[in-house]
Structure formats: C-alpha cells, structure tokens
Amino acid sequence: QVQLVESGGGLVQPGGSLRLSCAASGSSFNIYAMSWYRHVLGKQRELVAHITNTGNTNYADSVKGRFTISRDNGKNTASLQMKSLKPEDTAVYYCNADILIRGVWGEYWGQGTQVTVSS
After folding, report:
1. CB under 8 Å to 72, separation ≥6 — which residues?
2. DSSP 8-state secondary structure symbol assigned to residue 10
3. Cα dist. 96→5, 28, 113, 119 in Å?
4. Would you give the DSSP letter of residue 45?
5. Segment 15-52, tens digit of pLDDT
6. Between the CA of residue 24 and those of 3, 37, 61, 113, what are the distances in Å?
7. Secondary structure E strands in 18-118
8. pLDDT score of 21
9. Proportion of the chain above pLDDT 90, given as a percent
C-alpha cells in the first residue's frame, strides 16, 4: 500500500507565497504522474498542476505564471510553489499520483491541506 501525505498549507495574505509538499511512502512502487488538485465546497474539484515522471508539466490557466510544480523522483515527493496568491486560490489542496504497485496501476490521493488566502 502507498500513502500520500501533504504538508505546507495555512493562512497567507493576498500576494503572499506558500509551498505545498507531498510525500509518498510505502514499498515496491513506481510513480508516474503527480498532480495537485484543489476543491472548494460547492464547486467541482479543479486540476491545478500536473507533472510526469520525465518532468513535463501543465497548469490550470488560473495559476499559470504563479504556481510551479516540481518533483524529486528519488525521494518520491512533489511540491507546489505558490506565489502571488489570491483569495480565489483558497481551497483544500490534494496531492494525487498514478502509482504502479506489483504490476497494478492505481490512483492515490492525499488527505488534503487547507490553503486560505485572506487579509
């Protein structure tokens, strides 16, 4: 079994920065893509950023130029650097990963971390 654990959320003022981290733990697994999603109650979950195991990235239009996703394949971690934060970035952010375990692909989610952008 694999677990994803996020950290780094919190309260920040508009224009501020936060860095979210996601760590995968377990044994005998390989991670393909890692992503960050966010969810606001009453709205659909939104894909924020995505990175493949070769480093190809894509972003939601709403965060392009402000957020940067990165990963460390050796440590099985991913990060989301968020800058110039806006109140509309307030959400619960979830780490997501496509993971191969003993020949079986699965999609895994972290527990979520709250990001609140407010003055």
Report:
1. 78
2. E
3. 10, 18, 12, 29
4. -
5. 999 999 999 998 888 899 999 999 999 999 999 999 99
6. 6, 16, 27, 15
7. 18-26, 29-39, 46-51, 57-59, 67-72, 77-82, 91-101, 104-109, 113-117
8. 98
9. 92
